[in-house]
Design brief:
Blueprint: E1 2-14, E2 19-21, E3 26-27, E4 31-48, E5 55-59, E6 66-67, H1 73-88, E7 94-101, H2 112-126, H3 130-134, H4 136-144, H5 149-153, E8 159-165, E9 170-177, E10 184-190, H6 200-206, H7 213-232, H8 236-256, H9 266-282, E11 286-289, E12 296-301, H10 305-313, E13 320-324, E14 331-333
């Protein structure tokens, strides 16, 4: 039997950076994101009796499919996730997996959120653990064990928290509001499509070498509380201020860890300054946030989309933009890839 799932990426409003346990992949702080509809992974899995090894093939938009081997860190995590779920299911048969991303690999958008959540869902279902997929909290834990924290949040649609329960050595996703709650947009502004030099995983390990890391952590409970309130009240000014504070706080940790990591470039800085200027001079409300790379995510309300996209496209360094609405989370579909 084949199973096919679709899973979206998400943008973190409050970032996950730094872990309290590198084996269980427990974060140091809770994070909050919006699940987005424009960057999707579709994955089909099928258990085949006659396979002597697992086969995984991935295709990015506009590219030829490539077979994955277990050399890179991300591929190793992928094959470990297959082996773990197979073992939990007390099964031995190998699996064939095909995956397609509807966004270009050179968009500079981490594909791990959508691809690891899709992979985990497809594996749970084909290996007979459907109930673990249906129980979203358990599903998100299963996703966490492959090591991508951002993927944990893609299990749910809308606005999602990745919550830590340190006493129970546990962390999982929970939905704050669904995708129909608020017409927010995440406009991804691509200024540098290159692959990032330092993986997030490496960054999580370095985070506590920054002298400012504990200060960031001490601010988090309040920031998480206020962010939830701003989402509930649909208060863009409040939410946007928190989003920018948190992005800059995370990048301060990155830039002051030992060794330091600089993800921003001149174009990122230029866009951040433009966004602030549009707010100050034209009362045009949009806010910036950046993950582990130089591309800028612009958060605004749907009513301002055209104005903001027009202005962004006038900036010389902007290569292209992807407009995302809030989306539903990981789901099963009937159309298989093979
Ligand atoms: C900067 O460990 O989830 O995006 O698997 O590469 O997405 P990837 O890394 P992960 O760390 C995410 C770091 C972040 C912030 C965030 O998404 O919360």
């Amino acid at each position: 039997m084949k199973t096919t799932v679709v899973s979206p990426a998400n943008i973190a409003f409050i970032k996950y950076w730094g872990r309290s346990d590198h084996k269980l992949f427990l974060p140091r702080n809770n994070s909050i994101s919006m699940t987005i509809d424009g960057c999707l992974t579709t994955t089909t899995a099928e258990i085949l009796d006659d396979l002597d090894k697992d086969i995984v093939e991935v295709q990015y938009y506009g590219r030829k499919p490539v077979k994955i081997d277990s050399k890179s860190r991300k591929s190793k995590a992928l094959f470990e996730q297959i082996a773990r779920i197979r073992k939990d299911s007390k099964r031995k048969e190998k699996v064939k997996i095909e995956s397609v991303n509807n966004f270009p690999s050179d968009a500079g958008i981490a594909a791990s959120a959508s691809s690891f959540s899709a992979l985990t869902a497809a594996l749970l279902v084909v290996y007979g653990q459907h109930e673990k997929f249906e129980n979203k909290r358990e599903f998100s834990r299963q996703v966490r064990l492959c090591g991508s924290g951002s993927a944990v949040r893609s299990c749910y649609g809308g606005f999602v928290e990745f919550a830590l329960n340190i006493k129970k050595n546990d962390a999982y996703a929970r939905q704050l509001s669904d995708e129909n709650h608020w017409d927010l947009l995440d406009i991804v502004v691509v200024v540098d499509p290159g692959k990032k030099k330092y993986s997030s995983s490496h960054g999580h390990e370095l985070a506590d070498t920054s002298p400012y890391f504990e200060t960031r952590i001490s601010e988090m409970n309040k920031r998480i509380r206020e962010t939830k309130k701003a989402i509930k009240n649909k208060d863009l000014e409040k939410l946007g201020t928190l989003i920018e504070q948190d992005s800059t706080s995370m990048h301060a940790i990155m830039m002051t860890s030992k060794p330091p990591i600089y993800y921003w470039n001149g174009a990122s800085m230029k866009i951040m300054q433009e966004i602030i200027r549009w707010r100050e001079e034209d009362n045009l409300l949009s806010y910036f946030t950046l993950d582990a790379g130089p591309n800028v995510h612009v958060i605004c309300e749907a009513k301002d989309k055209n104005k903001i996209v027009r202005r962004l496209k006038r900036i010389e360094e902007v290569q292209f933009t992807i407009v995302n609405k809030p989306s539903e989370g990981t789901r099963i579909i009937n159309k298989h890839l093979f």
